[in-house]
Amino acid sequence: MDIHNKPINERYEWLLELDRRYSVAFTSPEMFLARERYLAQHPSDIVVLKCMDGRINIPIATNTPPGIITPIRNLGGMFNLGWPHLGEVLANHVHGVVSAGRRVLILITYHFSKGDKQRGCAGFGYNTEAAIAHTYGIKKQVEHVFGHGHGTVYPIVCGFETDDDALILHGETGELLDVGKLTQRDMETLELRLEKLFPDMPGQVRRDLLPLIHGNKAHVADIKLTSRALDIEHREWMMCVGRGFDFLHMPNLALIIGPYSPDLADPIRKAASIIEANMKAGRIPDDGFLLVSSSPYSELGVDRARAQLKASFLAKFAANVIHEEFPNLAGKMTVHTAVLNWHSRALESVS
Fold first, then answer.
1. What does the pLDDT look like over 267-321, one tens digit per residue?
2. Which of 57, 59, 70, 117 is most exposed by smallest CB count within 10 Å?
3. In 10 A of CB 309, how many CB atoms?
4. Which one, of 66, 91, 12, lies nearest residue 254 by Cα?
């Protein structure tokens, strides 16, 4: 179904149903047991810093069960650990993982298309070199916060080639491991190659990185056997502000703004201008667009109440920016405010 051309009320209902189906699958006995089995075998925690682009779906690209990888997304994949909220979110996450005796693997990603530069990252003006330089800057910040010894937190700069969904790992000495180019013989000596790429990586982390590469290799092989549209027009009709949008891993559907930058108004303006341009160009209907805010909670009571206030603030803040700077677009805005139950991944509406 081409959801982009449906009336806004149908698109709204479709979104809620999409989340409902994702939550049902996430909480199913099979999926729960798959996560438990995976973590028993591979205890390292995995965090991915990435762009909001829906093509960058690392769990799917690595054949990893949903809920194993923690995504942190923002427009353009632009982050700075000096941002107060981002620093707190990452530090608290690492603390919780380490207190349970586990290590953390952080993939700091950039993305590009080998077939067409214009299918790359618009946030960096399709300049892959600039995107790589930015990810290395983030890596230095991670090392500044969590240590250069890499004994507990191990950051890796990682490319994502969106035509084939192939990972490209940047080694400590600058050598690359392009999963899309690995032969079967290469796969047989993969652990030795990882030791060369990351000589200071703890053995457990290296063993927990292996299934991501094996899964990505199988996924890339499947992609090459299928025919899929690559030249997909940008047709975003939804702006999402906050966290908890894992179920929206779809290209050209939503512009997702993480609540990390101290200047939230800037990415909101950029997202609003993109949606307005999509309407004017006829790429989406001009009957409306959706503004969704979400904040996750883990516990009932105080944690959920705080998430409600945060989601409400984000919705009002974004709506005010749009009203002030895009008055015509504001008249076509439908606002949905929600909190996300982290255990079930279900969006719960906030009145």
1. 899 889 989 998 998 888 899 999 999 999 999 999 999 999 999 999 999 999 9
2. 117
3. 12
4. 12
